Amino acid sequence: MSLSWHWGLQARGLPDLPPGLEWPAYEGRPFKLLAQIRLADVAPYDLAHELPPTGMLSFFLDSSPEAYPYISKENQRVIYYDGDLSQLRRRSAPAAENFRFTPRTLTFSSRLMLPPSRFL
């Protein structure tokens, strides 16, 4: 199932965040949005019930050269929001050159799929 973004699933682009939540950053470097997932849309595919059935998960990463090649607690954030999704607001990106990843649509399936061997 492929879902286009609007209160659902997206990879990259601009996030919908609750009012008052600051844009995730580390040492003054704003993070890029990797993915944002409305969990109610994923629930039918979560056969093992490993995720909460409601809310929004947002994944952010510091993609600056200073952050690589290390992934640590400091240069990534996962935000779980289980409030009223109608309160979320699209946020503009902080002013930064090459800030956004190109937006993509996510597709979910209950089948286990591995990446091609060239990526392992």
From TrEMBL:
InterPro entries: DUF1963, YwqG-like_sf
One of the Pfam families matching this protein, by short name: DUF1963
Protein name, UniProt field: DUF1963 domain-containing protein
Native organism: Reticulibacter mediterranei
